[in-house]
Design a protein that fits this description.
Blueprint (H helix, E strand, L loop, with lengths): L4 E18 L6 E14 L4 E6 L11 H15 L7 H11 L4 H19 L3 H4 L8 E2 L2 E3 L4 H13 L4 E4 L5 H14 L5 E5 L6 H9 L7 E3 L5 H9 L5 E3 L6 H10 L4 E5 H4 L2 H14 L2 E5 L5 H12 L21 E3 L2 E3 L2 E3 L8 E3 L1 H4 L4 E4 L2
Parallel strand pairs: 5-6, 6-7, 7-8, 8-9, 9-10, 10-11
Antiparallel strand pairs: 1-2, 1-16, 2-3, 4-14, 12-15, 13-14
Helix pairs in contact: 1-2, 2-3, 5-6, 6-7, 7-8
């Protein structure tokens, strides 16, 4: 029997943040995330779940309104398709809607959830097999005064994190003071990545990075574009992680060919879902690039997908995984990954291993079925 998609329901959930988040480079405070959650029902009654959730509208060229509009284009053409044929699902989406990868992610992840349930296997098994019990999680915190950021680091440490990602991005002398204060607080077993979120111009990045003597410190996305980051790479010695400028496989290929970075962030929502994230992961394994494997934002639904892919990646190539789930006051699903002392442990139940709480999701904002 051929399995077919027979219904797609779209839900919209507001995820307030426990603490407002200041994004670097003069962008707006983020005090909530608008998440779009997708349920795909198959002809044999399996329901797969996925989530697309931008980190506010000013972080990337992505916002919740765009997801809703994109779903209206994509969902009708997927009715009747086989959700187990993931490459074909992605091909259909790419033929129908050019770009807008963040729209496609929830659909792709929901199809992976269906595949896992159909095979009676957790996603990490399907994504390569489990290389470790857990994935290390990143204790991220927003930029502020040096004193505020040191206090935030201590708070993350008390929560169990041992890998930190402070968000830096402002005036040169202040950023140097921030970094120096944070590094002075680090304990021997702790690790840090300085994340500029593309806030610096190349000359600022070069001045700041070259002022830091410890060359084991990673700097993440110092500038806006791949070309600017390449200019910084040529005049600095710290390892660089590329994040926001890696959207497509072609971006990754160019970055690797030019030697811009020693690691990349694979954000599942940004690159279009688990199918394309896995392709990028495998390329990095083949070419010696290390990885953070993360979601852009969102709840335990999206976060659990990232944990599954992370633990299915060899430890040698893996850095850490973001932890947006624990930023929110609303948790719209049961199950999913378990938090333990700064790590995330994926479930062993089939598929993603989550069960949405329908009282929180409410009524769907759109329903697509065969006309």
């Amino acid at each position: 029997m051929t399995i077919k998609i027979c219904e797609i329901n779209i839900y919209e959930v507001e995820l307030p943040l426990i603490k407002p988040y200041r994004i670097s480079g003069g962008r707006l405070f983020v005090d909530k995330m608008d998440s779009i959650i997708v349920a795909i029902t198959t002809s044999d009654g399996i329901v797969g779940w996925g989530e697309s959730c931008p980190f506010g509208p000013s972080y990337l060229p992505a916002f919740a309104g765009g997801i809703k509009a994109g779903m209206a284009q994509l969902a009708p053409i997927l009715i009747g398709a086989n959700p187990l044929e993931l490459e074909n699902i992605n091909h259909l989406m790419d033929l129908t809607l050019k770009g807008h990868l963040y729209v496609k992610s929830a659909i792709d992840v929901a199809c992976w959830d269906i595949l896992g349930k159909y095979a009676n296997l957790p996603l990490h098994t399907l994504l390569g097999g489990r290389f470790s019990e857990h994935a290390d999680l990143i204790g991220a915190f927003a930029n502020g005064t040096p004193e505020e950021m040191v206090a935030d680091l201590k708070q993350r440490r008390d929560q169990g994190y041992h890998i930190f990602s402070p968000k830096i991005g402002g005036e040169v002398s202040l950023d140097i003071s921030r970094i120096q204060a944070i590094m002075a607080e680090l304990q021997p077993q702790e690790k840090i990545t300085i994340d500029a979120n593309r806030a610096w111009l190349p000359d600022h990045a070069i001045q700041i990075m070259n002022s830091i003597n410890d060359k084991t410190v990673y700097f993440e996305q110092p500038c806006e574009t791949l070309e600017e980051c390449l200019a910084v790479r040529r005049l600095t010695q710290h390892p660089i992680i590329l994040d926001e400028c890696i959207h497509t496989f072609q971006d990754l290929l160019l970055a690797q060919r030019e030697g811009v970075a020693q690691a990349i962030n694979i954000k599942i929502g940004r690159v279009g879902g688990l199918t394309k994230a896995r392709q990028m992961r495998d390329f990095c394994l083949a070419t010696g690039l290390r990885m953070n494997i993360e979601e852009t934002g969102g709840s335990v639904i999206g976060g659990t997908g990232a944990i599954h892919l992370a633990v299915a990646t060899p430890l040698r190539y893996r850095l850490a995984t973001s932890d947006s789930t624990r930023l929110h006051t609303v948790i719209p699903a049961k199950g999913g990954y378990t938090y333990k002392k700064g790590t995330g442990i994926p479930p062993e139940t089939p598929g993603l291993g989550i069960e949405p709480i329908m009282e929180i999701l409410g009524e769907p904002i759109a329903v697509y079925t065969k006309s």
